[in-house]
Design brief:
Elements: E1 16-19, H1 29-32, E2 43-46, H2 57-66, H3 73-89, H4 92-99, E3 100-109, E4 115-123, H5 125-144, E5 150-156, H6 164-179, E6 188-191, E7 195-199, E8 210-214, E9 218-226, H7 235-241, E10 246-250, E11 253-257
Antiparallel strand pairs: 1-2, 3-4, 5-9, 6-7, 7-8, 8-9, 10-11
Helix pairs in contact: 2-3, 2-5
Bound molecules: zinc ion (ZN).
Residues 7, 9-10, 12, 47, 49-50 line the site of zinc ion.
Length: 265
């Protein structure tokens, strides 16, 4: 008899397989006239609670990510086919409350001067973060064949953060994956137009461990802080969050955090 598998996120027995990322992000052949964007999709064992299909999160994630302006043509195509079908099934309220607040459609010129219909508004970051966290746990399970026990943090590259520190961190992380090639385990994913990911080997700070790319453009960076990891695993984060001026060097470049602190009088 096959050994009972446990869920990729908790200690419950697995009752199903969860796609990581959700299968609905990948275009179906009925839309692509036979082009296959669903090669070797990743699955992990999941309990009922952590199967995102049951919470409508998959559809939410698909609508949130496929609608991003910077996406490649596959992302845009997916938005206007599967994305629009999903929107038509929902009412306007769902879009406004769940996907984009202050939602409106507008036309913007793309790089070739053609106008494209896009949706603009404030994304539901909290729900998006929750969905992406599941993907991080799932990819960790798939990569290391064990459940991750600890804390996951993430930076969404396509979000304009309000504070300077996070904006700086975003640039730093993006650059780090570009220059520290020897630490990377290689870009993986059999449908690169839809989804790719790359684990970064742990370094002295343990600042970052995973980069994911949706539709060739939308990047999310994750750091995994294991439960038993020792300091200074997250030292850089602690300094930055503690408001302490911190400079992280990357080759010749310097990334400065908390530099414009004003003294309270
Ligand atoms: Zn579970």
């Amino acid at each position: 008899m096959e050994k009972q598998q446990t869920c990729y996120m908790c200690s419950k027995a697995a009752t199903s397989k969860e796609h990581v990322p959700p299968a609905c992000l990948f275009p179906e052949q009925k839309d692509t006239k036979g082009l296959d964007f669903r090669k070797n999709l990743i699955t992990v064992p999941s309990c009922d609670l952590h199967n995102s299909k049951k919470s409508n999160d998959d559809e939410f994630l698909m609508l949130s990510l496929s609608g991003l302006i910077k996406n490649n043509p596959v992302g845009t195509f997916h938005q206007i086919t599967k994305g629009n079908r999903a929107v038509r099934r929902k009412n306007k309220d769902f879009i406004e409350k769940e996907i984009l607040r202050n939602f409106k459609t507008t036309k913007i010129p793309d790089s070739s001067g053609k106008y494209r219909l896009v949706s603009i508004g404030n994304p539901n970051i909290q729900r998006l973060t929750n969905c992406l966290e599941h993907i991080a746990y799932g990819l960790f399970y798939h990569e290391f064949q064990k459940q991750f026990d600890g804390e996951v943090r993430m930076i969404l590259e396509f979000i304009e953060y309000q504070d300077d520190n996070t904006q700086t961190l975003k640039k730093f992380l993006k650059r780090r994956f570009e220059v520290e090639k020897e630490l990377n385990s290689g870009v993986k994913g059999d449908n690169p137009e839809v989804f790719q990911y790359e684990f970064h080997k742990p370094d002295k700070d343990g600042l970052i461990a995973l980069r994911t790319i949706f539709y060739g453009a939308a990047e999310v960076y994750f750091s995994f802080k294991g439960k038993n990891s020792k300091q200074p695993f997250d030292l850089s984060f602690m300094l930055i969050e503690g408001g302490i001026p911190t400079i992280i060097g990357l080759g010749e470049e310097k990334y400065e955090f908390n530099k414009s602190i004003t003294t309270k009088t």
